[in-house]
Amino acid sequence: MKFKRARTRKSKRERRPAEKVLPRKMPDLLLALLVVGLTVFGVAMVYDTSVVLAHDQFGDKYFFLKRQSIWAFLGLLGGSIVSLINYHHWQKLAKIGLVVSVILLILVLLPGFGSEIYGAKRRLALPINVPFVEQIAFQPSEFAKLAVILFLATWLSTLPSVREVFLIFFGIMGLVGGLIILEPDLGTTLTLVGAGIITLFLSPVSLWQIAVTGISFALAGVFFTFSSEYRRDRLFSFLYPNVDRLGISYHINQVLIALGSGGILGLGLGYSRQKYQYLPEVMTDSIFAVIGEELGFLGTLVIVCVLFVIVWRGFKCAEEAQDLYGRLLAGGITALVGLQIVLNLGSMVALTPLTGMPLPFISYGRSSLVINLVEMGILLNISRYRN
């Protein structure tokens, strides 16, 4: 799969939008089937990992299963609707979406708006109660990631000048990324910036601009890592996992114990021992460790292969897109999902520090699951217009 990077401005005839061309009748069915299948599997794994916690805290072992099922249904419904909407329509909403995301990121930091969990303000609670879900809360950072990619794809498809690239790209990433850092949430910031740089790479922007941008944000990432004590602890536990096993290295050691206990074939679905209050964040960050313990190396290999194919099909949509906007949008969305996968799986096998990043389509979550499925809906629509 090769991407040809444009070097010159296109004529008006070449830059004419492709939305008038009749789409193929069917979207990328392989991508759709894999996403739906992985989402259903994720619902089952959330139930498997949450039975004890749900019974102890709420007296209902189906508590988290009900919630995850509702959000999975809403996400699949939203993704299905979005897949029927011509992706060019999102160009008109790109600026509005970016402004709204910034406002929401500011609100979540203000007293009385954001709900604090484990010392971090990442969720914005709404005064609305519905059955099985209780109060609706979502993470503005998840919406902000998609809004930024929509804006970047729209803006870069206009072939901006060198000065515009530096000013606007650094301004947007600095503003949105800075607000997410204040929550604090370094993992989401890394995902956003990484996806933004990949979108930049797929555009006609020169390589030296991309190199300067990448180096600048890498240095900023190093600064923010060492400026926070808990981030330094996570880096230290990554470099020295055998130090302080009951303290800062406890999480990664329990993850490795779970994966090692699974062996080749696993202990069997539902027979994990580490999920019984040994593994921290067992339904979210560490759910892959439970999969490894119960389904073994072969089971995790299948999941990794499915995730890889989803990312591959996403970049295939970008490669075959009819116009530059579709290419940038598909590439940026795929980069968002792909980087989340890399950060989660990398931290589970001690290749990267723990970042608190959920595994797309599988981990328990509200905003992340719904947004990921909506992003897949946009990808499916782009696949209908591929060359």
Key traits:
single chain, 387 residues, mainly alpha, 61% helix, 5% strand
| Portion of residues within helices | 55-70%
Number of domains: 1
Task: Look at the helices and sheets and give the structural class.
Answer: mainly alpha
Q: Main β-sheet, in a few words? A: 3 strands, antiparallel
Helix tally equals: 12
Strand content: 5-15%
Which word captures the global form? globular
Please give the number of β-strands.
Answer: 3
For the termini, the CA-CA separation is 14 Å
Trace the largest sheet across and list its strands. 1-2-3
Based on CA atoms alone, the radius of gyration comes out at 21 Å
The assembly state of the depicted protein chains is single chain
Question: Would you write up a description of this structure?
Answer:
With 387 residues, the chain is mainly alpha-helical. The chain has one domain (29-384). Helices cover 61% and strands 5% of the residues. It contains twelve helices and three strands, in the order αααβββααααααααα. It has helices at 29-58, 63-82, 94-107, 140-156, 162-181, 186-202, 207-226, 229-239, 250-262, 287-319, 324-348, 367-384, and strands at residues 114-117, 120-130, 134-138. It has a three-stranded antiparallel beta sheet with strand order 1-2-3. β2 and β3 (134-138) form a beta hairpin. α6 (186-202) runs antiparallel to α7 and α11 (324-348) runs antiparallel to α12. The longest helix has 33 residues, at 287-319. It is globular and about 55 Å long. The protein starts with 28 loop residues before the first helix and ends with a helix. Mean pLDDT is 86; it is low at 6-20.
